[in-house]
Batch of 2 targets.
Target 1
Amino acid sequence: MGPMSISSSRWVSAGDPASIATMLTDQFRVEYGRDSHGVWFAPGRANLNGEHIDFHGGRCLPMALAHGTYVAAAPRTDGVLRLRTLESSLDSGPVEIDADAVTPAADRQQHLSRAEDHDDAHSWTRYVSGVFWALRQIEDPQLRIAAGFGADILISSTLPIGGGLSSSAALECATALACVALGAPLGTDHPEEELTRALTDARRAALAAACMRAEVEVVGAGTGGLDQTTSLRSAEGKLISLDCRDFTLTRVNISFLLRGYRLFAVDTGQPHQLAAAAFGSRRADSEVAMRILSADRLRDTLPARPTLNDVDLVLARFDELAGTADFAGREPLAVRRRLRHALTEMVRSERLHRHFADEARGVDHTAADLGETMTAGHNSMREDAEVSFPLADRIVDAALRRGATGARLIGGGFGGSVLVLAPEASVEQITTTLAHLDAGIRFIEVVPSGPAHAL
Ligand code: GLA
């Protein structure tokens, strides 16, 4: 075999789950001087369409990855959380937290300035402690953990941190499963095999909602539930078509599409900061548009099967109202662009949802349609949502030039990953070109995978 090409050395492996679990179990013993009671895994996600619209009730088309986050844990009865991550960019040694004293971001900010709150080197630990906080309040008593329940936890991930592939939700969801198994009645009453069955889709949806509360209320990031839902409720070989009005979903077989085509993520190596002001600011712009239109959710301004013509009608109504509207200090044209992104993104999702339901259209036709939609989605992320960045734009352009069927930035933006759909035969030439764009670029195969589980 010849020397490894520049692109082939850049693929990030999902690893072998069993070996990762063994490594984590061994490390756990070294770190805490006791045995862990199990290892739990939750996947990251890619999203074909539906960015920045989950919190507006839009439809998203995500799938879980084979890459994700592993959590080894053992329970404690003193309400203490001891955490350590093997992720070298985050690890600064073991962190100890009083699980009884976790506070929502809004309360913390009464005591700290915003800058102090965000500067905290241990802010990643809030994704874990936030889940403990949320699971103490969850409605279903079978899933609720009691005060005094703490844990020793060791974490390892095969996802790039802040790479737009939902590393934070994966950490939350793996933590949630560990909590339920070790500290909630459902877990203590059911041995492992039975617990998997007892974790029905409805219970997984309740856990996703709890993880979302952890992120919104404790971490303080105004995200919308797409990531947690995908991580806990995905299915192998399928994408989920997720209606974010009520988080109902249909699981759509896409293995037929992957015959002859490949989906992969290009991690730019430029991590985003979700809790940072930019994401919240984009969401705030779009919420001004929502208020001006007197809507509870932007999805409600469009019909069930929306077209671009419907988008124009809403924009025309917005323009009529804009003259006398209160923009709450936000830039009117920017607010209009955020609105246009949300509405066109909703149209794209609904169209794809209908197309995927029709396998009779054939692979090439479906791929061409999906690719075009992805690229249109990227343009909207760049021009209207304004969450893209130069390297992501260069990756999209270069991928398309080298034969990709479609490419787009996914996740919250301001860093993160680009998703590429390409005919199998052009993957090598595309990745070789992309690898030359920046030394930090990595590739991640998108294999539609099953949901969070115990190992
Ligand atoms: C992040 C958030 C999600 C969603 C996306 C953008 O991943 O966690 O809720 O808003 O950004 O679509």
Note: The longest helix spans residues 332-356.
Target 2
Amino acid sequence: MTQDDFKIEKLGKCTLDSPVRDMFFVDDNELVTYETNPAAILKNHPIGFERAGARKKIFHDPAWSKAAILTAGGLCPGLNDVIRALVLALQKYGVPVIYGIRYGYRGLNPEHGLEPLLLTPEIVDGIHHDGGTILGSSRGEEKTEVIVDTLARMNINILFCIGGDGTARGAHAIVQEIKRRKLSISVITIPKTIDNDISFIDQSFGFATAVMEAEKVISCAHVEAKGAYNGVGLVKVMGRDSGWIAAFTTLANPFVNYCLVPEEDFQLEKGSHALLPNLVERLAKKHHAVILVAEGAGQELFKKKSIRRDASGNILKDDIGVLLKSEITRYMKKNGIDVTVKYFDPGYEIRSVCAVGEDAVFCNLLANAAVQAAMAGRTDMIVGHWAGNFTHVPIPLATSARKKIPLDSTLWSCVKTTVCF
Ligand code: F6P
């Protein structure tokens, strides 16, 4: 990787004094180093992210600006906190018009007849206490040319897209069309996914709250498991391609005895990492067990006939929770072991709540950084967070690969110390 991979697109020179004076300003040359290990920084020339934060000089004239906000993809705790904080931060700069685009990119295609909402501090007051998004969300693509036609027609010069990697890819395509037409529109993405799988960002908003919610379900699964002789509490959480929720939940609530994630293969009956014989041993000793499985784990156990995709193009996973429930029951019966499996599938419950605690704080800080980046004419970027700092991450870099749990990491080794498999 070189510094070029971290280069943030700018619409032009920042020539206007920022109207926001009561702030700490960040110099354009400030970096947040990618390597966090000092030895590695010394060895390789320090490369890194542009530091997020308010600039003394800005690009867009606030008085002439019109901003738009949309939320796309699956729901996530904190969406309303981000919307609210964007509106307040834009207002602080003096941006007079803020549109709330309905149902993601769909709302930018006039064919669907979805009128935008006019967002004001009054409209967004108190919305942080509600889960979901006041704007609605959707998956699926809309024609980029049509989206840019709409932005141009509405004179929007700042677009905030709150979403995951699919939303960010859509935002990148919009930027390409904006550039082709030589328009001056900033497109800024705010990373939302409870899967926490966006690369070059240490955490996405909503993730911490989702872990807190999942952790509660583990306690219920433990109670159910202990309430039966040879009881198994089986919990499936979201995590299509990465097992971050499962891994963090295991550490947050170590009642979990088995943590199954997409990053680590396992077998059922035979093999070097076979689940069922291990479960027999555990039940013989303790007579109860809690299994936490991420939805993308164990997909190699299915005989797939065809690949199914959702409207965003993501491969839909086969139901590993249902498979495990029936395989555990079948195997134990075959071996003459009495077992009771209680299956919990709290997928949507953990993401439809509102963000709490530090997660809500994080939403506010990300939204402020997004507005500051937009006002300074940045585009084609995601607001990130890296080693304690807020950053600007080019969309192509952040979407270059999905972030997965490294199996040689401290995190995973800590999970392995907690569980028995
Ligand atoms: O946002 C990512 C995610 O949480 C995945 O883990 C999950 O597969 C997906 O959303 C499900 O969302 P929906 O059912 O809304 O498409």
Note: The mean pLDDT is 96.
